[in-house]
Amino acid sequence: MNVRIDDVDRKILGELQRDASQSLDEIAARIGSSKTPVWNRIRKLRDAGVIRQQTVLLDAEVLGFEACFFVLIRTSAHEAEWQAAFLRALRDRPEVQEAHRLAGDIDYILKVRVKNARAYDVFYQALISEVRVHNVTALLSMEEIKSTTMLPL
């Protein structure tokens, strides 16, 4: 579905990205509108798939998930059956926060959040027991410098 996004829509989306728990009144006041038009625009943006979901961002470290690994995967298997099994294995693992198929020497990159290195090894052993991979490189993030879900509207 094609949807036109104007400056008011961008302001609303910016406010929702900043804090989706705001009331309609708060959003309307911040963008210089009234409640009903803001509600109608948000509904339109949801119906069009621009707004996929609203959620809460949790602090991983406060909850004990102190290790973030970026996992580079190379595979020699590119058949549909292998790919389906691989994607299923990733979707079944809550440790995988992001997964991307890449162009270039590396086939996939995963962002994996776990409590510690031992927990990463448990994840790794489970993954390679389900799908065959040619090469896996795990890079431990020493410091998160920037992390955002906000798009530059």
TrEMBL record:
Residues 5-66 form the HTH asnC-type domain. It comes from Roseobacter fucihabitans. GO terms for molecular function: DNA binding. This is DNA-binding transcriptional activator DecR. Keywords: DNA-binding, Transcription, Transcription regulation. It comes from the Bacteria. InterPro entries: ArsR-like_HTH, AsnC-type_HTH_dom, Dimeric_a/b-barrel, Tscrpt_reg_AsnC-like, Tscrpt_reg_AsnC/Lrp_C, Tscrpt_reg_HTH_AsnC-type_CS, WH-like_DNA-bd_sf, WH_DNA-bd_sf. Gene3D superfamilies: 3.30.70.920, Winged helix-like DNA-binding domain superfamily/Winged helix DNA-binding domain.
